[in-house]
Write a structure and sequence with these properties.
Length: 249
């Protein structure tokens, strides 16, 4: 008797479903699904730009610190460029923009403040030079009353008119005073408590007698009620009698 062998070609196969599932997972790309991820990295340059922008106000304290807003501006531009070229994988453009805006604002304010201060100092310097020129013109012309008026009210309360005249009469007499001028070099400062502005420097005193050396006595100015005035000439007006004042030998 012929036995009919089962036809294996017609038999349905039953693969191990768990094995195939694992192998299918193994064969999947390890980067599958990343293209649809919503994760975006924060751009480092943008963060640095924002920090530098916030720190840019320090430039108002010292001109050297103007490097901070400049650096904030540069890193902000770099951050914007990197975010734009990241194909959506980086974020932080708003931080870069904030850093740029803050750096520009602080840098501009600090720069214009330096310009305003330089302009005011130049005007003050010119006013002080004119004060010294007016002092010499009045002393030379024997208009000591007008010369006395160039000094501050506090000076005139301390030094009487007679005391004021003595040094100038002494210098013009035996010492043959030739000229009083300024070298234009002054140091400006402000009292943080009272806000009083002051300046100090030297005047150049020359004599007709060539045997006498020129003198460079200190001079102090103060700014009150919208104008500069001579506050003191310590060499000529000390706590001692001003009649002893005279040029150095």
């Amino acid at each position: 008797m012929n036995q009919v062998m089962p036809d294996s070609t017609n038999q349905p196969t039953h693969p191990d479903s768990s094995g195939d599932a694992l192998s299918s997972l193994y064969r999947m790309s390890k980067t599958a699904g990343l293209a649809t991820s919503e994760y975006q990295a924060v751009n480092v340059a943008s963060v640095v730009a924002m920090v530098l922008g916030l720190a840019s106000y320090l430039a108002t304290f010292d001109a050297v610190l103007l490097i901070i807003p400049v650096a904030g501006l540069v890193t902000g531009v770099i951050g914007l460029y990197q975010v734009a070229r990241s194909n959506g994988t980086q974020t932080g453009a708003w931080m870069a923009i904030l850093g740029i805006v803050l750096s520009l604002a602080s840098g501009a304010w600090a720069g214009t403040a330096r310009y305003r201060e330089a302009s005011r100092t130049a005007a003050d310097r010119a006013a002080l030079v004119k004060l010294v020129d007016d002092l010499w013109e009045n002393v030379r012309s024997d208009k000591l009353e007008l010369a006395y008026g160039l000094f501050s009210e506090s000076f005139r309360q301390r030094v009487t008119r007679a005391q004021f005249d003595q040094p100038w009469n002494s210098l013009k007499g035996p010492y043959a005073l030739k000229e009083i001028s300024s070298n234009g070099l002054f140091v400006f400062e402000s009292d943080p408590a009272t806000g009083l502005r002051a300046a100090s420097g030297q005047i150049i005193v020359r004599f007709e007698d060539s045997r006498l050396q020129g003198d460079r006595p200190s001079i102090i100015f103060t700014y009150r009620n919208g104008r500069w005035a001579i506050e003191n000439l310590p060499t000529y007006y000390t706590s001692q009698s001003p009649s002893t004042a005279g040029p150095p030998r």
